[in-house]
Amino acid sequence: MAIFSLRASGNWQARIRRDGWPPQSKTFPNKTDAIAWARKIEREMDTESFLPSDEAARTTLEQLAKRYREEVLPKLRARERDKYLLSRIEEEFGKYALSVITPAMLSAYRDERLKAVSAQSCLHELGMISRLYNKAIKDWKIKIPRGNPIAEVTKPSVSNERDRTLRDGEEDLLLAVLGERENPWPRAAFVLALETAGRLSELLALRWSDVDVRARVARLRGVDGGITKNGDAFRDVPLTSRAVRLLESLPRSTKGKVLPMTANALKLAWARAIARARRMHLHSRLCEQLAELGFDQVDRDREVRALIYKKRQPQPITRKLLDKLEKEDHTLVDLHFHDLRHCATTMLASQLEMHELMKVTGHKSARLVLRYYHPKAKDLALKLA
Fold this sequence. Notes:
Oligomer: single chain
Strand order of the largest sheet: 1-2-3
């Protein structure tokens, strides 16, 4: 029940205290208005439709992020990325109350971030803010006068569809570099990605107990053996002869995993392999051009060593040729590990029907499969011939 008291100023204050709800109070010029307000609030509490308006002013985004981190993140698959996004948002807006953050502030933040990160990264950060507000409003019943401020912010346009696949010679370059390592797992991951169209997380979760070499089938699961990105418990994929030979040659890890390494370790190994393979390719082409200029084998090797070990300066013509090659030769430039899934899908599409291909890649629609299918015109011309 509400309590009404006459203030020294002559105004009437209504106070409501009810179990399960934060205390509410408001001052009015007359008692009639105070009673009407109290009845309205109590009726909303009775129907559980009341949203306390002052809670948004008392709750900072930092507090909201803390609750999200404790209650929501443990249930999500992309926890690590969301942890980073939460930290980034807290750094910028953590001390602000939810009711204070405006669309104008978020628009200014968007413009500033676009100077430092890609549109996709900026979109992820804005998306995290939106998820925080939606959770607060819908599930935690925090009444925010303006609602979700992200709704009034123009999102940066993103075109993230990729059509990058392995170009001529790139696979051989990477196999040569990855084969130099004592650790066989990065090379194995590279080959399995090309032969199964598996995602990085699915390949790293693959266990020997899910591999049947005789039946030539592997069961792919999501992160840590959970559901896949598309929500399936698992996905059975056929193994090519090349994949079978690779699996038969691999040592068995005591951990039971086919590829006993972390996602970060594989990404670092991939980045190093790309850099080394590209450097080897450019140096090989440089030697060809130096040979055309009359450099003998000894001089060519001497120039390459100067570039690698930096104990002396290479000749000006060597530096000029290398700079030109780096600008014009795009071998192994902008090649991501996930692009191997594009390569595998394109390869498998020439041997499987669409409905069969969807079972292998795990896509739910033909439209999504087409995002990963990038046939070369010359290959299509051979089919016509």
